[in-house]
Amino acid sequence: MDIFKLLSRGSSIKHNTGSVQTKKSSARQKAIEGDFNQQIDKELDFFHTRKLVEKQTSKENDNPNNQDDSQPNNTLKFETDQYEGEGEGEDKNNDESEIEDKIPMKITTKQQALNLRKSYKCKISGDDIPLPIASFEDLISRFKFNKTLLNNLIESGFDKPTPIQSETIPIFQFNRDLIACAPTGSGKTLAFLLPLIQKLLDDNLSNLKAKSDSLKGIKALIISPTKELANQIFNESLKLINNFRKTERLNIGLLSKSLASKFKNKIINNDKYDILITTPLRLIDLLNHDNSISLSNIKYLVFDEADKLFDKNFLEQSDNILSKCNNGNKNFQKLMFSATIPSSVEEIARNIMISPIRVIIGNKESANDKIEQKVLFCGSEEGKLLAIRQMIQNSEFKPPVIIFLQSVIRVKALFHELLYDRLNVDYITAERTQLQRDKVIERFKNGDIWCLICTDVLSRGIDFKGVNLVINYDVPNSAQSYIHRIGRTARGNQFGKAVTFFTKEDSESIRTIINVMKHSGSEYSEWLEKIPKLSKKQKKNFKKNSIDRKEISTVPKIIRKKRKQHKEMVEASKRRKHINNDKAFGKNVTGDSDIE
Prior knowledge:
By secondary structure, this protein is of the alpha/beta class. The protein has 4 domains: 3-99, no CATH class; 108-361, Rossmann fold (3-Layer(aba) Sandwich); 371-544, 3-Layer(aba) Sandwich (Rossmann fold), CATH 3.40.50.300; 556-596. The protein is 47% helix and 11% strand. The longest helix has 28 residues, at 557-584. Strands 1-8-2-7-6-3-5-4 form an 8-stranded mixed β-sheet, sandwiched between helices. The protein is globular, with a radius of gyration of 27 Å. The chain has 23 helices and 14 strands. Its EC number is 3.6.4.13. It comes from Ascoidea rubescens DSM 1968.
């Protein structure tokens, strides 16, 4: 496969292929309308399997002799363009086309870089900032990227860099420290995985030529705040290193419980892996266990979801990891990625980094502009539950849906309420085992579950393709939490919707959400702006102390009271029976001290 030909083709005939294949697709759709049994209802095609079937059928019809292997990439490009057209209209597509036509495939001057950055609203600061890339072809011409790596990239469906990728890949290649902020679903994972793998390939080649063993062991560390996100990064990295030659092969490890046990028992050592992906706590536990692992050869340290990793809950752990990695190596790179970067995190970053480059795509306190945001006043807790049921009745509840709540108790309560409504639903909380969480996530991704209820444990990084709706049943306690929650929809080039319920108790905290909506260009009622702003002290208290909410239920109070009384009577009866049994066997029982 000619990589140059493939990459240049995707860019040069984008608009022509779009128009030609739209006609083909339309003709095909008319041809299959008569066959009812083979038609998939668009409203039930949650994860866009219909488009995949159409793409495969189109490939067979248009290319019966299996000629020109590069055609599937053009088909994928058409799908993206068609989806954007449906969501935004032809006028926006025409405007975007005019902007793209003005941007060359290769950025060679500062003026060209300025034009490109204006097109995607990029704010960048720092010394000696490298020029961005406008296409993946630049990765070969400028940085001599591995062709197998780029083939894997194209086969995964990527043919054009996103704004964050355009900026951060060259910065990574020039060994610069980085603070990167971009909206959810904008390709941040690939923005650090792609250059990281290439850098390690270059390092291994140099090491091989010099016949040196100085770079053996773990050279790159990726820190993630949750196990689910770490697992997702691991899976994406495996796709990128597929089909590498033996001399190019990289070993990537996910620090799970079993792998940590192997390190502790000396079954494996540092030489086994080039890249290690982990959560902070798991790594700290391993570092504290008789030096089971060494980070002395680390050259690249990536903090994904940096705002979470440097908040008060993770700060000490992240600082400990940094101290273990810092071996005085001038090329030791530190990179932070997140959808939100508070000023406190930026201050920490500047203290631990050397002349970092700061990249902000859009506004650092704004949400993805492909998300239609809405706030809904429900009056009371009962009103929230009625609002969900009304959305279901009015066909506004379009699966797949994710619902966020503030506590485990409330998640379980809403789960049982919706289960009573015969909704195809499940839930995830920190209380469930890792195996249970993995199974639920897999079922949700496969479309077996239509609605997923969870706490903030799933609000960061997890890429659920095709999520149509996010509901904030409880108002999040910060703008950062809100942005990450609603970022589970509108991934990649898709569009999504987010609805936030609020009551009288949320009248102060909802102001934070309105500010995010304002920055994102979303519409909202004018009276919401008249809500008094929170003082710094109020904001601090709100983040520390969640609102004490009533329980989730539409069952009348008198019935709930009778149920509670019945439950207490049953428990008292069991205690009496237990005491009588103990007495019958001659045990000395006083009170209830032995009962549990």
